[in-house]
Amino acid sequence: MRFIVLVACLLAFAYANEEADVLKEFSEVNAEDFKYALELSNSIKAQQEGHLEADKENWVVKGEYEFDTKDGKHVKVTYTADDHGYHPTVQQ
C-alpha cells in the first residue's frame, strides 16, 4: 500500500505543471513487482521500481526523481522505502 501512495504522489507532482509535455513514459505492474519511468519536457524525471518481499507482506521500493527549481537549481532525490520507512537522499 505504501508504494501506491508514493507512486500517486510522484505522478501528481510530475503532472502538476500543465505546460509540460510527456517525453517518455513506461509502466509495468505485476502482482509481485512493478516499475515505471516518466520524463517531462520541463526537466522533471521520475523512475521507481519495487518488489514484494519473500514474506509476501512487505514491499521494497527504490526510485528517484529530479527537477529544476524556479531559481535554476537542479535537485535529485534518490530513495528507498521498505517496512522500516522512507529513506531519501537529496542532491542539490
Automatic annotation (TrEMBL):
Keywords: Cuticle, Signal
Entry's Gene Ontology molecular function annotations: structural constituent of cuticle
InterPro entries: CHIT_BIND_RR_consensus, Insect_cuticle
Signal peptide stretch: 1-16
Superkingdom of the source species: Eukaryota
Name used for this protein in its record: Larval cuticle protein 9
Gene: 106088234
